[in-house]
Amino acid sequence: MYNLGEIAKLINAELIGDAKFNISSLASIEQAQAQQLSYVVNNKYSKSLLESKAGAVIIHESLKDSCTTNALIVSDVYLAFAQVSHLFKHHVNHTIGIHHSAKINNANIASGCCISANVTIGTNTSLGGNTIVEDNTSIGENCIIGPNVTILQGSKIGNRVVIAPGAVIGSEGFGNARDANKHWHSIAHLGNVIIGDNVTIGANTTIDRGTLDDTYIHNGVRLDNLIHVAHNVVIDEDTAIAASTGIAGSTYIGKRCMIGGMVGIVGHLNICDDVVINAKSTVDKNITSPGMYTGIMPLMPHKKWQIVGVWLIKLDKIAKYLNIKLNHLKGN
Amino acid sequence: MYNLGEIAKLINAELIGDAKFNISSLASIEQAQAQQLSYVVNNKYSKSLLESKAGAVIIHESLKDSCTTNALIVSDVYLAFAQVSHLFKHHVNHTIGIHHSAKINNANIASGCCISANVTIGTNTSLGGNTIVEDNTSIGENCIIGPNVTILQGSKIGNRVVIAPGAVIGSEGFGNARDANKHWHSIAHLGNVIIGDNVTIGANTTIDRGTLDDTYIHNGVRLDNLIHVAHNVVIDEDTAIAASTGIAGSTYIGKRCMIGGMVGIVGHLNICDDVVINAKSTVDKNITSPGMYTGIMPLMPHKKWQIVGVWLIKLDKIAKYLNIKLNHLKGN
Amino acid sequence: MYNLGEIAKLINAELIGDAKFNISSLASIEQAQAQQLSYVVNNKYSKSLLESKAGAVIIHESLKDSCTTNALIVSDVYLAFAQVSHLFKHHVNHTIGIHHSAKINNANIASGCCISANVTIGTNTSLGGNTIVEDNTSIGENCIIGPNVTILQGSKIGNRVVIAPGAVIGSEGFGNARDANKHWHSIAHLGNVIIGDNVTIGANTTIDRGTLDDTYIHNGVRLDNLIHVAHNVVIDEDTAIAASTGIAGSTYIGKRCMIGGMVGIVGHLNICDDVVINAKSTVDKNITSPGMYTGIMPLMPHKKWQIVGVWLIKLDKIAKYLNIKLNHLKGN
Predict the structure, then answer these.
(1) In angstroms, rounded to a whole number, what is the distance separating the alpha carbons of residues A30 and A38?
(2) C-alpha to C-alpha distance for A310 and C328, rounded to whole angstroms
(3) CA A194/CA A143 separation, integer angstroms
(4) What is the SS3 string spanning B152-204?
(5) I need a labelling partner for C54 at 20 to 30 A (CA). Which of A121, B111, C92, C106 fits?
(6) Are A321 and C299 within 8 A, CB to CB?
């Protein structure tokens, strides 16, 4: 618990409001409640700011007039948020073996595991050797967690979940704010990872925790090996994703999708239900219709590829030379 | 050991044959022997079905006439196979330290390792700290296995093999059957991983076990870091594969190939000997001639790429507008 | 310490010089000093060879005349170098718990960690459970090293460094010499990994050690999850790289670059400061101007992609059919 005076000092903010006002935690502008601090990075969110129930908000001075609550005025809002986030980061204590407060109900824990404070593990769940489960994690019934897995604090894992060796659940998201000197400042990720029932997670796959809200893997999802799931990604029910695919932050993937191997999906996208993406494709825009999508360069003998490539990077010039206009190509 | 009556009940099959007939294990239709159960997913395999020595087969009723042995008739053969597979999955017991049945011949085992039942480890082999070796695994002589490695049950590893930290050998394959409600059902992978002599495997690389047959890494193969090798892949002698490449299920890669980094190779392909694939290419068809292959989009300044892209996705329309036919392009 | 007579025998070389001359270590031709052995693979380096201070050099006989020091004449220099490299590889001893020679200054070491000989760990640094730190490693102050991390011998890590779970620092590089029978021979990597201050390294990311010189991650660099950094890569200050990207050997990446996810960067390239590479692009040539670069195939409905692809791989033939020459496209 920090009061606004302390926070203003940390981030070098002008405080408009009550310095003694206590902040319990951080939240997004839409979700923040009376004791929570939020932030708004630009004017696009001025309506959300006006309607927010947040107890206080970090804003740029240009948004002062849209703010009806305590305001912390700074020149770089995102950087200030990065700095404040660390105040509210849960501190993890190391545990030797199984912490006395852990509730383990007829589970099978191999040697070398560390199970920290307030962990609950359900009936018939099995943990392989040298697996780490940090505090406040819950793991349901009939799960099979492999050896050398790392499950970081606050993760919530459902029933009948399989996690293969080497997977990491709840690692910090890759969110960084850049200061005026172009140095990066990490954002402490305060959300968790939530995993539903009947989910499988492949070997050495990594799932980052959310920034403020949670990263969410819904019931029935199948993730293969070496997949990267970034902070605040939501993968909806019964979607299957093949190996080495990467999903950047805050992207939503609908139900019953099938994503091939080594697909790259950029951040903040929305992919609807029942989409199939072929292996190695790049998804850089929303997908709003079910169906199969592809975007890869065909494989050619190297010499052929070199010759084709020469013309490929000149397609605009070819069109100009042939006096082809885009509107010539409509409707045919 | 289960009899056909029990299996028919589990998968809700109509049994044509002897309910007391005992099944010892599962096998593919070509390899199955008298005490084994197999399955055939579609009519393409009716000849194999006719010629099979399997003791029993899971089939759709449309294949009844091609079946000369005990038959389990179901509406969804692949789903039934997924369900049956779990009956024959080897159950792993956790071990503390080194199991008394392990045969370790002058090897150097670091602290924190778990070596399970019936493991054999050859002379002068070294295991780094916190490495897990599950039961029935064999590791040859003069191997260097790094710390935090996971070697799952039944793996066979030759002599002079180097496995870097964090690698996972023998993880479950990514095979799932989908039911009528679009829920996924994992297939229990019953094959193993076989690794020949003089193989090196990079850090955090994952090699999945086979479904019924084995995943096979032949003598002299070099695998870099963060590579994904799926179930039933075969990589033949002296092939080298650079980092972050992924190989989907059941693909065969010939001898002395050189595969660049971050190449994606789709499943069920056949790549002949002495093939070179440049980094980042996608291989989506068989390669039948030695030589060098490439398939990547050239890097451009972003603005250039945007302009080229506009025309690229209209190549078919440009051809139509210019009245170019494919047969115009032959022979020139 | 080996003398040239012993080394000549190992690699089956003709020695021109002093068989009793002692070699302390290996170094590149430019950096080698009086007690060091180097090698030159082809005639391009004859000037470096002439100017070298190396105590001895492995060369092909065609370079004999450019050599003013002790020479080991072989037919395959790179293969001979691979063989010699193993003589000078540091041998790691396993440690149980914390070695008595480790200097740990008020750090917080979780259970299951192995800290080997001559390791130093600074004040307020924390190591998660089951993490391995091999000998001669130094870790600075206020670092947070996650669970299940592997830090291999000789790594130098600065202050305020965060290493996420499952990361591997200092794994062997992927350098192999091929003999006349097309068998691979690993090169023992004798360089280290150097990590500056304020660096973050994501979950399951792997950073290989250098061949002779070091792999270098400078101050302020941010690396996301599942990234591969090959031997002798240098990533300069304040560069951020998103998940699943791979960087091949000996590439230099400048300051303040932002590299998207799943980018592939081939080896021996030079990327200047302030470059932005969009996700999934392939970098296969030097980048000498700051700015944003892209090289990906646009995503299309699969049927559209199939049709476009037909024409794409015939671009050269279309140009020929239309009688377009490259010089037609200049200046427009």
Answers:
(1) 9
(2) 13
(3) 15
(4) CCCCEECCCCEECCCCEEEECCCCEEECCCCCEEECCCCCCEEECCCCEECCC
(5) C92
(6) no
The percent helix, strand, coil of chain A (3-state, each to 5) is 15, 30, 55
DSSP string, B198-246: S-EE-TT-EEEPPSSS-EEE-TT-EE-TT-EE-TT-EE-TT-EE-TT-E
- Token digits for B221? 């193969």
Chain A positions touching B230 (Cβ under 8 A) are 243
Positive or negative torsion for Cα C250, C190, B145, B234: positive
Strands A120-121 and A103-104: parallel
Structure-token pair, residue A50: 């006006």
What's the confidence (pLDDT) of residue B331? 66
Task: Give the per-residue pLDDT at B12.
Answer: 97
What sign for the dihedral angle of Cα A105, A108, A111, A115? Answer: negative
Strand-pair partners of B200: B162, B222
Most C CBs within 10 Å: which of B161, B225, B275, as the mutation test of the C interface? B225
**Which residue of chain A is at minimal alpha-carbon distance from B230?**
A243
Q: Rounded to two decimals, what is the model's pTM? A: 0.97
Q: Report the b/e string of B62-99 with b at 16+ CB within 10 A.
A: ebeebbebbbbbbebbbbbbbbbbebbeeebebbeebb
Give the side-chain half-sphere CA count within 13 A for C115: 24
Distance to chain C for A283, nearest Cα, Å: 6
Q: Compute φ and ψ for A131, nearest 5 degrees.
A: -85, 140
Q: Which fold has domain A2-88?
A: 3.40.1390
Q: Is C295 on the interface with B (CB under 8 A)?
A: yes
d(CA C31, CA B296): 37
Q: Which residues of B touch C321 (CB under 8 A)?
A: 324, 328-329, 332
Packing angle of the helix pair A77-85, A4-11 (nearest 10 deg)? 120
Q: Which two tokens stand for residue C112?
A: 């299951």
A290 has a chain C CB within 8 A of its CB: no
Structure confidence by residue, pLDDT tens digits, A115-141: 999 999 999 999 999 999 999 999 999
Handedness of CA C27, C28, C31, C35 (dihedral sign): positive
User: What is the DSSP secondary structure assignment for residue C287, as one 8-state letter?
Assistant: B
pLDDT of residue B9: 97
- As a whole number of angstroms, the distance between CA A247 and CA A252 comes to 9
List the domain boundaries for chain B.
2-88, 103-293, 300-332
CA distances from B39 to A131, B51, B75, B145, B178 (A): 37, 13, 12, 38, 16
Buried b (16+ CB within 10 A) or exposed e, B6-27: ebbeebebebbbeeebebeebb
CATH 3.40.50.720 correct for B103-293? no
- Strands A144-145 and B184-186 turn out to be unpaired
For chain A, positions 186-245, list CB contacts with chain B under 8 A. Answer: 198, 200, 202-204, 220, 222, 224-226, 238, 240, 242-244
Distance CA A240, CA A219 (A): 11
Give the SS3 label for residue C72. Answer: strand
Query: Low-confidence residues of chain C, pLDDT below 70?
Result: 331-332
Residue C173 sits at the chain B interface (C-beta within 8 Å): no
The answer to whether the CB of A196 falls within 8 A of the CB of A217 is yes
For B46, the 3-state DSSP assignment is: helix
Inter-chain CB proximity A147 and B166 less than 8 Å? no
CB A119 within 8 A of CB A135: yes
> Strand pairing of C176-178 and C25-26?
unpaired
Catalytic annotation present for C99: no
CA distance A140 to A136: 13
Half-sphere exposure (CA, 13 Å, Cβ side) for A108? 16
Task: State the average pLDDT over residues A270-279.
Answer: 98
